[in-house]
Write a structure and sequence with these properties.
The protein has 3 helices and 23 strands. By secondary structure, it is an alpha+beta fold. It folds into 4 domains: 84 residues, conserved putative lor/sdh protein from methanococcus maripaludis s2 fold; 86 residues, Efflux pump adaptor protein, beta barrel domain (Elongation Factor Tu (Ef-tu), domain 3, Beta Barrel); 63 residues, OB fold (Dihydrolipoamide Acetyltransferase, E2P), CATH 2.40.50; 88 residues. A hairpin with a 5-residue loop joins strand 13 and strand 14. The longest helix is centred in the N-terminal third of the chain and has 40 residues. It is elongated and about 165 Å long.
Length: 379
């Protein structure tokens, strides 16, 4: 019994199978010819100009804009500390208290001297008034026989002396007022306050110790106003101008940006580098920031320049040369080009193309010179 499936067009020895295969091949050939006549479906991209700025990594570090010791302005024993190492303080917050007793006594003595000076001024003013009255009486006697020129001259001199005494009392009162103000400042300075927002990183003394003017009590660092300092090779300075934006990377790998604040006009003769200060713009970071933390700054190789670029997908290598297919109407023609630096997903074009040229970026592998093309609407 013959077990072949005579109902299948693909059965062995089937004439109908051979005919079906021939018709299928003919249909495929006709479709390909029709597609060639309509043109190959391609995607295109425009040749454009854009800024080019190559960068190199430079190692920098975080530095605080404000940091240093908080010192005593007066001489007195420490009564108490209000903070510990690691505490965060606000500007104007009390860090430590000094014993004010001796300074308060000096203030009271200055207040007494001011009162004394005021009393002396009042006395001198009263004596001056009396001397002027006497001089006035003698002036009224000038036309009478009882007038004495000697007494009149003595009265004028007495008025001058009392005027000088009033001026002296006024000067003494000004001095006493100034001494009282200084004494009050000294008493107020027994409250050691934070000059800016920051974190206490070291305590230099303890309660009970006697401090003099200028002795350090704590070290404070303003960690909320950190900058970046990087020693940049002198040949890379040309690419940095105040206000220019650069990219940076922290130790945790997070990318951020910073702007150039200043270039220190001093060069290290050993390394031929110059210190550059950057103001960072930190977004979310995985770890707290700290002074002297390492930062990688991506510094421009040179001044930014505008270059002509073409998409990387448009470039085909043929015989060791770079070429692209440029569309002119419905026809694609090859064009040899010279490439420069990479600019993201594009290449710098040194020669061979002009701005506005439309090049094939999809479907260019099968194109031949003069082939008709159809532009994909997704281009």
């Amino acid at each position: 019994m013959d077990c072949r499936d005579i109902s299948s067009p693909w059965g062995a020895g089937s004439a109908r199978g051979a005919l079906f295969l021939a018709l299928l091949l003919l249909a495929l050939f006709a479709t390909e010819v029709e597609a060639q006549q309509d043109g190959a479906l391609v995607r295109i991209d425009r040749v454009t100009t854009q800024p080019l700025s190559q960068t190199v990594p430079v190692l920098g570090r975080l530095v605080p804009r404000q940091a240093g010791s908080v010192s005593s302005r007066v001489e007195a024993p420490i009564e108490a500390f209000q903070v510990e190492v690691g505490d965060r303080v606000r500007a104007g917050e009390v860090i430590a208290r000094l014993n004010p007793d001796r300074l308060a006594a000096l203030r009271d003595r200055a207040a007494g001297r001011l009162s004394e000076s005021r009393a002396k001024k009042s006395t001198a003013q009263a004596q001056l008034k009396l001397a002027r009255q006497e001089l006035g009486r003698l002036e009224g006697l000038k036309a009478s026989a009882a007038f004495s020129q000697a007494r009149f001259d003595d009265a004028e001199q007495n008025v001058a002396i009392n005027q000088a005494q009033v001026a002296e009392a006024e000067a003494a009162m000004v001095t006493a007022a100034a001494e009282l103000e200084l004494a009050e400042i000294d008493v107020a300075d027994t409250q050691i306050m934070a000059p800016y927002d920051g974190v206490v990183i070291q305590r230099m003394s303890e309660a009970g110790a006697y401090v003099k003017v200028g002795d350090s009590l704590v070290r404070l660092i303003a960690d909320s106003s950190l900058e970046i300092e990087a020693d940049v090779p002198y040949q890379r300075i040309i690419g940095l101008t105040p206000g220019a934006t650069v990219e940076l990377t922290l130790d945790d790998g997070s990318p951020h940006e910073a702007s150039v604040r200043a270039i220190v006009p001093e060069e290290n003769p050993l390394t031929r580098t110059r210190a550059v200060r950057f103001v960072p713009s930190f977004s979310q970071t995985e770890s707290p920031l700290a002074a002297d933390q390492s930062v990688t700054v991506w510094v421009p190789v040179g001044a930014p320049r505008t270059v002509l670029t073409v998409h990387k997908d448009a470039v085909i290598t043929h015989g060791g040369a770079a070429m692209v297919f440029v569309t002119k109407g419905e026809v694609a023609e090859p064009r040899e080009i010279t490439l420069g630096e990479a600019v993201g997903s594009r290449y710098e074009v040194l020669s061979g193309l002009e701005e506005g040229d439309m090049v094939v970026v999809r479907g260019n592998e099968r194109l031949r010179p003069g082939d008709k093309v159809r532009i994909d609407e997704a281009s």
